[in-house]
Each structure stands twice: as C-alpha cells, then as structure tokens.
TrEMBL record, chains A, B:
Keyword Oxidoreductase: yes
Gene Ontology MF terms in the entry: oxidoreductase activity, acting on the CH-CH group of donors, NAD or NADP as acceptor
Matching SMART domains: PKS_ER
Keyword annotations: Oxidoreductase
InterPro entries cross-referenced by the UniProt entry: ADH-like_C, ADH_N_2, ER, GroES-like_sf, MDR_fam, NAD(P)-bd_dom_sf
UniProt-recorded name of the protein: Enoyl reductase (ER) domain-containing protein
Pfam families: ADH_N_2, ADH_zinc_N
Residues covered by the Enoyl reductase (ER) domain: 23-356
CDD domains per UniProt: PGDH (cd05288)
Length: 361, 361
C-alpha cells in the first residue's frame, strides 16, 4: 500500500480550433485537476514542469485539418503540448534507472504543472525526453536553466546544425530571416563567430537596433517599414551568399533573384506558407540552376546527434559563459498566463524567445 | 614568304532573332567564304571541324535580350557557336606546343567547316578547348569519335557529375526528366549501374519503349499522352528519392509534392522557364523544409575536373566498351543541314543526341 500524494495541477486545454482566424482566448481553457504523484506504473514517470517554451509551430495544432500536423497533436479537450524543462518527481520501477527521480529533463510536455508520461518501458514508445547535464542547474555563470529550451535547446540546435548544413565560410555574407527570433539571433551570432558578415530582418525598429547594438549583426532592417529589396541592396550591395530562411514566400523569391552564384539557402519551415493559405507562387526557381544555388530543407529532429554527443552544450554554453554571444528571451511567470502570451507571441509583440516559468527549481 | 593555302568554309550565320516565336529557317543564313589556313598569328589555331553538337541551350541565343545569355553570344551576322570535335590543322608558334597540329580537340567552335581561334597566347583568353586522348581516334571498340561531344562530352559530364552531386545510393529510386535526351539516357543507365531503380519520362511512345527495352530503365512514360501524376504513382508507388530535373515548372512542382523525405533534386536548367515566358509559379516549396528535401543547382562548367583528371573518359568509355551502357545519337551529314535539324531537334523530332557530321577524320 502506497500513501497517496496529491497535487493540484493546472493545465491549458485546447478548447476549440482557430483555423483561418486569429487565435483568441476562446481557443484555451484553464483547468485544474488533482494528480496523485504516488501512483506511478512501472513504465511511467511524472514530471514537475519548470519552464515551457511558447513556439509558433504550435499554431498548427489549432487547425482542425491540414498541414502535416498529426491528428493526435490536434485533439480538443486535452492539454497543449510544447517543449519544456522539468524535474522527474516520480519514476516507475522499470524506468527508474534511465529516468531517476531528481534528474532534470527537456522534451515535449503538457502546458501544465505536472505531466505524466507513460509506457517508457515499451521500446515502441517514442519520446524526445533527454536528461540534462548536471551543470544545467548551475546558473552562476550567466546561463539560466531556461536556456535548455532556447539557446541550448531546440532553437539552439536549429541554429547550430543549420549553419553546419550550410557549411558557411568566413568572409561570406549571410542574411538571416526573423533574425530577432529564438533561432535567428543565434544564427547571426554564431555566424559572426565564424567570421561571416551578418545581416538580418526583424519586425520592429527596436528589434533591428538590438541586433546591431547587442548581438553583433553588421546590419538589420525592419521588414514592416522598409522594402526588403531596398534594404538588401543597401546592406548587401555585393549580394548574399547564404540565406537562413524561416519564412519562405516572397522573401525567398526575392533572395533567389539576388543571391550570388553558388549561394546556399537553408529552409527551416515556411510559416508564411502554412495555415491553409494559398501558397505564395515562387517564380525565380530558375535561378537555382543558373547560379548553381543549393536549397536545403531542414528538420531539427534529424540533427539530434548534437544533443546526444554534447557538442551543442559544450560549444554554445562556452560561448555564452565567455560573453561572446548572448541570448534574448522573455520569461513570464505562471502557467495560467500562457494563453495570452501565446497570442501576443503570434502577433510579434515580443522580442526573443518566449518562455513561461511554471515553477522554481 | 609563306605559300597561301585557301579552303572554302561554309558557315551557319545567325541572321535574325526568333524571340518568343518558333524558330524558322529565317533565323539562319548559309554563307561560304574562303579561309587561308596558312595565315596563322603566333597565338592562333585553326580547326577543321569534324562533328558539331546541336543543343537546346543555343535557342537562347535567338532571343535579342533576356536570360543570362551574354550579348556576345547573340550577335547577328556571325556564325552560331556550339560544341564540336575538331582537328588542329594550323597552330601559331606561341601555342603550337599546347595545341599541336594533328591533335583532336573538343570545345566551342563555329557552326562551320573551319574555325580560327585567336589570342590563345594571352592568359586572359578563356577557352574551353580540351585536347582529346589519343584513343579517341580508335573507333574499333564501339566508341565512335562523335561520343566526345555526347556520352564523353558535355552531356556525359552533366550526367556523371550530376549523379555525384546527388550522391545517389543503391536501392533508391530516381526519376529522370527528358530521359531520352542526350543527358537523361546516360543518367538513367549510370544510375542503374549504381544499383538504383530508374524511371524516366520521354516525349513519345517510341522513346519511352527504347528506354525500357534498350537502356535498362525500370519504367518510362510518354509525358505527352499520360498524366505525370498518374504515371509516377503507377511507376513509383512508394515515392521518388531523387529527381534529375532538366525542365522545371509543373513537373518540378509535382515532384516536390510526391518526393520522399530526404529526397534530392538536381536542377540542370529550366528550359520550360526560359525564352521570356512568364515563369511557372511553384507552389509546393514548403515541401523542402517539411521533408528535408535538398535542391541542387548544377552548372556543368563547375565540374570540368572530371574531364581534366580523365575520370569521365575512363569510367564511361569502359562501360561503353563493355556494352554495360549504350548511347543513342542521331548523326546527320553536312554543315548545311544544321538549320533544319536544329529546328527539328527543338520540336522533339529526334531521339537521343543530335549531331552534325561535318567532315571525316
């Protein structure tokens, strides 16, 4: 007989679809239920969630159909899922060695205070949970724990591995789309560390100025107020060698026109082309053969080796600790604030990576 | 005092532009002039042209403006230029060691019987002339000399180096566009030699049948009579891993839709997108990021090392001599027949590489 240990668990539930409309609070319902953390099956673990990342791709789960988002990610009346940092507070007997109580992990969790993950003793169960290194707890060297879902998490991996795929060379020029975002700010700074000239686009004057003043960008422009063709002509009069593309659509078409011979483009997803809208018709693809351009599609979970071998942690944590790069995130307190911050994030209100702090370590 | 040695030289002159219209005989003028092959400046050579390749890209020189074709390639009242095989019959004293009389060369020459190439003693003069290996004369092993502008020339290089760029793997499936053309037939057979499953599209039932019956293709379809989506679904029900694309436009858009994850596309030029027509609007580019697809633009003169190091000659000549692959070309006699054959080639009347034989070796 185990004694029960019951916690109150507040969750953000997917209440309805937004589909083609703007996301509103009607899509979210805040629910509080009890969770008995003493009841843990042999293959289960229970996580106490500390930080939660709010990411644009979660918008796709508010479409009833469409895209490649699996139906299981779009169920109504269950919590949203997102990348989090959590502490293991209970672990079933079959998995306790691999997932020891007290360890910190990162991976997909619910938008909630506690998440139960089941079936980890079944080899068929897929999970992206990774145990964080012991030094993740050490915030004394200027690297907060929250960075394990930002600079040292998925955005960091996407930036780091994306530059590897582009195989960037010193002295060349890279244009970074959404440069003030969770991925773009790192792409630019890492490219700068590698000796490139770096220019970026951002959604406000403040964001563009921050990139130049605080994050070593050689140039940046506000794509909402300056024509992209004029800005790129001004900032890169000799053309662009690499384009780190987060958006697709019209900006990709423009870059194809002005990119240099042997230019390379990394496409990490075409936000502008999703949400059931009619895709932007790209007309400059003939530039690919004419200029021997390469376009690489990038899927971050194909590059998890940089988590597994510790390379991402070693490389980026070291640069952060030395102050050679920095990272901008906006951290808000309380799981119940997630819906409004998610809406604000989608509308571009925030600068840098948006994170909800759910609990203290 | 040198004795003069005067030959009659018939040339095909660019008489007028076709621009957006179909090419007609009005674009060509046949001229015969004398050439004194005893008069050769120190840096000049004179070529006796033996074979001439008729290639679709020459169509671009019949546009008064547009594209990336240099203006110097589009001059009126001068001979057309194209890839040829020639014998050096005179060589100036400054270049006679590098270009000895009697050697066979391949490179761009005029559509004519004799071509003078000047300034080869000036390091700034660019030339694509290459001296052919001595065994090029040996036609006893089933490799005619004309192959040095087809299977062992630019089309051969484009096929061979293109497959290198795609880094094709055994067991995968490749779809070859324009598979009956000078490049496509080799792409398919070389891929087959490397253990791939090979399917192709061609412009007639006869061409499609030839690919299957004579050139080891696993499947082929007539794109003029069968819907490409239906054909690819029939021939590649599990999707496509590689697409060797010579056309761009609608077929590229379709392949982006059905290509497998990690698929790779080589684009060697988008014939369908040139000639001043409004480009076909590609709508499926979001597939690149979604499926981690890579698109490589290919420019053949970036890969000349396979000529220079002899690798192309060794590899493909050996396969041809052993009968492991074969090559289909249509050879017509007489420089004066070039205009009509050029027109016929553009309209797809011929199967395989189209070559004009100008003179016997």
């Amino acid at each position: 007989m185990t004694s029960s240990k019951i916690f109150s668990n507040t969750s953000i539930i997917r209440a309805s679809y937004a589909n083609d409309s703007d996301v509103t609070l009607a899509q979210f319902r805040i629910e509080t239920n009890d969770i008995d953390v003493s009841k843990v099956a042999p293959g289960d673990i229970i996580l106490r969630n500390l930080y939660l990342s709010l990411d644009p791709y979660v918008r796709f789960t508010l479409n009833e159909t469409g895209g490649d988002t699996p139906a299981s990610w779009r169920l109504l009346n269950v919590p949203f899922y997102g990348l989090g940092i959590s502490e293991i507070i209970a672990s079933g007997e079959a998995v306790a060695t691999k997932y020891p109580v007290g360890a910190l992990v990162s991976g997909n969790v619910g938008y909630e205070q506690y998440t139960r993950i089941s079936g980890l003793d079944d080899p068929k169960t897929q999970t992206d949970l990774r145990i964080l290194p012991a030094h993740a707890r050490d915030e004394t060297k200027g690297v907060p724990l929250s960075y394990y879902i930002s600079a040292l998490g998925m955005p960091g991996l996407t930036a780091y591995a994306g530059l590897k795929v582009l195989d960037v060379k010193p002295g060349k020029i890279i244009f970074v789309g959404s440069a003030a975002g969770g991925v773009g700010q790192l792409v630019g700074q890492l490219a700068k560390q590698q000796g490139l000239r770096v220019i970026g686009s951002a959604g406000s004057d403040e964001k563009a100025a921050y990139l130049i003043e605080k994050q070593q960008f050689d140039g940046a422009f506000n794509y909402k107020t300056e024509d992209a063709r004029e800005a790129l002509t001004r900032l890169a009069p000799n053309g662009i060698d690499y384009f780190y593309d987060t958006v697709g659509g019209a900006i990709l078409d423009l870059v194809l026109e002005i990119i240099n011979e042997h230019g390379k483009i990394l496409s990490i997803g075409m936000i502008s082309q999703e949400n059931g809208k009619e895709p932007y018709p790209i007309r400059n693809l003939n530039a690919i053969a004419r200029k021997a351009v390469t376009i690489y599609g990038f899927i971050y979970w194909h590059h998890l080796q940089y988590f597994q071998n510790g390379e991402l942690d070693t490389t980026i944590r070291s640069l952060l600790e030395q102050g050679k790069i920095n990272y901008r995130e906006e951290v808000f307190n309380g799981i119940e604030t997630a819906p409004q911050h998610f809406i604000n994030m989608l509308s571009g209100k925030y600068a840098g990576k948006v994170i909800i702090k759910i609990a203290d370590l």
